[in-house]
Amino acid sequence: MSQDPAASGAAVDIIRVPVPLISNSYMWGNLYRSSVMSQHSGHWRFGTIITLVLQGFIVLILCASIFTRDIFYVFGPALILFLTLIPVILERKVKITIPWWLTFLIVLSLYIHLAGEYFEWYLTFYPYYDKIAHIISGITVALIGFTTVLLLDRYTGNNFNRALIIVMIVMFTMAFGAFWEIYEFLVDTFLGGDLQHGNTDTMLDMMFVLLGAVIVAGIGNFYLRRISKCDMAKKLAGDPDFPRKPGAMVMEKESCEFKK
Fold first, then answer.
1. Would residue 9 count as lying in a domain?
2. 137 in the same domain as 111
3. pLDDT, tens only, 68-117
4. In a shared domain, residues 107 and 131
């Protein structure tokens, strides 16, 4: 039996109309999952579960602080929760694909600091908790610095050599550590906090941050001896949609060529 072409076309249109609506309705729900699956699908389940558990603990601390009307701990967890979502925001906005393990380290570092303050673990397990937290934070910040330097090299046409990249990793990490110690000093001075325990404690904190930076610098040097800067940047950040300066394309081609 013959079918009316107009009726057939109408049927096709009816089927096609909801598709964009369905896609948009699932877009935000799948945002976090897509960010951790995109590059490391073999490990995304473990990374997602552990990261979400830590973020759930942060939300619980935030809710408890709201319930007890503790303004100081309302602001802290809210800020830290936002910071844990930055990798997902970057994935969405500029197409940076951060490896699941780096996202996990970022969330872990932030949670360790928040939990140490909220549950007073910094005092209960002093000085071990404090120094372990600074090593983990130092490694995390150094990895972020390493990624940033490689992206600058790739998109600005600076063409950093391996030795300079290693030095910049350490400098970036130590600068962050110095700003963190200044933050702790200001909290203790003006808000009555108890974050610092004398000059020796501050210097030991900086030394453990330096240790984390040296570990990442050593690993970075190991890999840059074996693969190109371009390939290393793609492993740490994927292929983000950043504007390039004039001449950066030529420099990027050179950086993608492996050189010892």
1. no
2. no
3. 877 777 888 898 999 999 988 888 888 888 888 999 999 999 999 999 98
4. no
